[in-house]
Amino acid sequence: MSGDTVIIDYGVGNLGSIQNMLQRVGVRSLVSSNSEEIHGAQRLIFPGVGAFDHGIKNLRARGLEPVLKEAVLSKRIPILGICVGMQLLANGSDEGAEAGLGWIPGRVVKFSKVDPNMKIPHMGWNRVEPKSDLCLFRGLDSPEFEDPRFYFVHSYYFRCERPNDILGTTEYYVPFVSAIRHENIWGVQFHPEKSHKFGMKLFRNFIEVTGA
Amino acid sequence: MIRARVIPCLLVTGEATLVKTVGFARAQYIGDPVNTVSIFNDLEVDEIAILDIEASRQDREPQFELIREITANCFIPLSYGGGVKTIDHMKRLFDVGVEKIILNTALFSDPDLVSGASEHFGAQAIVASIDVKQTLLGRRKVFRRLGQAVKHSRARSEQTNDLLRSLDFDDPADFARYVQALGVGEIFLNSVDRDGTFEGYDLDLIRAVVKASDVPVVACGGAKNFRDLRTPVLQAGASAVAAGSIFVYQNQNRSVLVSFPDRSELKEIFAP
Lengths: 212, 272
Fold this sequence. Notes:
- The complex is a heterodimer of chains A (212) and B (272).
- Chain A is of the alpha/beta class.
- Chain A has one domain: Class I glutamine amidotransferase (GATase) domain (Rossmann fold).
- In chain A, 25% of the residues lie in helices and 28% in strands.
- Chain A has 6 helices and 13 strands.
- Chain A has an 8-stranded mixed sheet with strand order 2-1-3-4-13-12-11-8.
- The longest helix of chain A is centred in the C-terminal third of the chain and has 14 residues, at 196-209.
- In chain B, 49% of the residues are buried.
- The chains are: A alpha/beta (212), B alpha/beta (272).
- Chains A and B meet through helix 1, strand 7, strand 9 and helix 6 of A and helix 5 of B.
């Protein structure tokens, strides 16, 4: 029996969609910024949309950085960063001046326009090529998931320092890292909560690999 | 590489019914919005756009409860437009699971709301809807409600000010430059004349706006059939295509049938 899944509320991100989808896959979840609830979680979901600095400043202004640090680095509670939530795991971003959490070495950089037809943000459905261990992408190669795909909306992407942390890559004019993992820390650049049955499967996988 | 997105554009009224218009008028009843969106979700459409076409006219706020019911059965990105006047409206919409906010009236009446929203929620969450209508002389002109003028914005830089001064706000391409200067992350381009006509997309209009845009442009208005979805993308450079009639009507006789091309059809439609 798995415990609570806590969606971290720091004033940034589409919490409604995530809760909505977790409910559909039958997972009890809680939206919270309370340190006790975060420390008692079975797993954490770290959402985020908008600008990098806006996100990290909000997190710090609410005093959540030390709370998360203890939960994730000391207590080793699994965490899944989504979109800007993933980007905040990096050391920093070209989008802002603030330092990131620095839990997965790397820097967030902007797409450069390498083709006159290239529009930024990268917005739409795209494939993820899983590297090595399938992990979050397990089962997506089965026939019920014809044309597996995820919904992306972003102008910046995570440039990973350690190849071993790369969980999946995607191509938008250039290849970029779309999923990362280091020990109990996961991140995805796309929005599983908006990615229909593919996103549901990814959440199910995350619940499974982080089960009690 | 990603395939262009295909987006059913659904119109709701103040009575929470789903309708389809011709030339932005003559609304015909289609069905229940919650149920219809749920069907589109099952058909695995790429995105859904919901426009409350009476909210601004009736000077009322978004129907939050209805939108909540709609998003509860929708696991794909959903954008919403209609009656959004404040940052608080937007917050409430994001909280119930809306992905992007479509703004139109505010582009004219409250440019600061548009740029503020983009700063607050990120450009990717803010879409400018540009409606274009041809004049009797055939000139394409940005359509606005009677007496609506573009209000002055506290532009942030001299550069932006200079740009704004040099623009013709009636011209669709210039208007696209203007909304990008406000910070929107996407343009939803509507041809009022083609709306509901099955006459084909206005490719000249789409080309002009795409050329003036660094952000994705969604082309809407006039799709003949599923096959025609390819034309704005392959011939005019649109990043995405939206349509209403072809997804809610069986054919040009306008009998209601909700449908959407399947994966293999989509592949064929967008094959170069």
